[in-house]
Each structure stands twice: as structure tokens, then as C-alpha cells.
Design a protein that fits this description.
169 residues, mainly alpha, elongated
């Protein structure tokens, strides 16, 4: 596979995965970029994962908790994982296995990560290197790498912009 074919497959994979994730939890997606209201005595709230809404926002702004692979992993549903692997293999022309789609989300450090999140995703690697919760927390936001990603998945920019505004407030 050539470099351009690989780039196209990655781009197609990201677009389709984001669309599936957004569609799965549309109601959550609409409000996920805002912090939930904090009540007295509550623990600090993270933009990336909140206990009250169980929303995990990836380093790049994707909602991990809306992804069909994440949902199947959390439900320990091997049949659903096999279906995701088969679906993604057909959609992206690659060989996906249950192991390669099993994922506890991008924010997971010790958990299971999809084959893409575990080593291929340059945005996740960069955010981990810079020790930022997500790209909105980075001093270099929005870098060239992220701007290129926004061209593929433009819906993520407003989410990260909103998180960034809440940080500055």
C-alpha cells in the first residue's frame, strides 16, 4: 500500500468512525464540550471524562464514549466487537480483528487501546508527550497537525475551541 493510499484509508477511517461516534450519542454530543455544573463538595470536573455524564473526549476532540468499539468494549460484548471488526474491515479495506478494535478510549493510559490509538495516532502521541488532557490544553493549540485533522473532521474544532474558552475563563 502506498503512502497516499494509507493516508486516504486513515482519513476515511477517522471520518467514518467520528460519524459513527457522533451518531451513537447525538444527545451527549450536543453538550459534551461544556463542563457540567459543579456543586459544593464535588470533586474537580475534567473536560475529558466526567463521572456525571460518562463522556470521554479524546485528545483530538472525538467523543470516545460514542464510538461503537468503545461501547462494545465497555459492555464486554465480544459479538458486538466482532461485528465492529467486520464492519470496519469492509469499510476501510483493512484487516480489523476483535483485538484491534477493543478500546477503553483515548484517555486511557493503562487500559486497552485500539490499534490506531495505540501508536499510530500522532495527535494522541503528541498530547501524551506534552502531558495535556486534550489538544485544547496545549500552548501550541491549534498546531499544523491538528489543523490538518480538522480539515478531515471539521466538527471537532468547535468542541476543542469551547473547551479552550472554558480553560481561559
Amino acid at each position: 500500500m502506498s503512502e497516499s493510499d494509507n493516508a486516504f484509508d486513515r482519513r476515511n477511517f477517522i471520518k467514518t468512525t467520528c460519524a459513527a461516534c457522533a451518531g451513537s450519542l447525538l444527545a451527549v454530543t450536543l453538550g459534551c464540550s461544556k463542563k457540567p455544573e459543579k456543586e459544593a463538595g464535588d470533586a474537580p470536573v475534567s473536560e475529558s471524562t466526567t463521572e456525571s455524564t460518562k463522556v470521554m473526549i479524546a485528545k483530538c476532540g472525538i467523543i470516545c464514549t460514542g464510538c461503537e468499539a468503545y461501547i462494545a468494549t465497555q459492555n464486554n460484548d465480544q459479538q458486538a466487537l466482532a461485528e465492529v471488526a467486520a464492519k470496519w474491515s469492509q469499510q476501510f479495506g483493512g484487516e480489523f480483528t476483535v483485538e484491534s478494535v477493543t478500546c477503553d478510549g483515548c484517555q486511557s493510559i493503562d487500559g486497552r487501546l485500539s490499534g490506531y490509538a495505540d501508536g499510530i495516532c500522532k495527535i494522541r502521541s503528541c498530547a501524551l508527550d506534552k502531558n495535556v488532557e486534550n489538544c485544547a490544553h496545549c500552548d501550541e493549540y491549534a498546531c499544523e497537525k491538528l489543523e490538518e485533522f480538522f480539515q478531515q473532521v471539521p466538527d471537532l474544532k468547535p468542541r476543542l475551541d469551547e473547551i479552550r474558552k472554558s480553560i481561559k475563563a
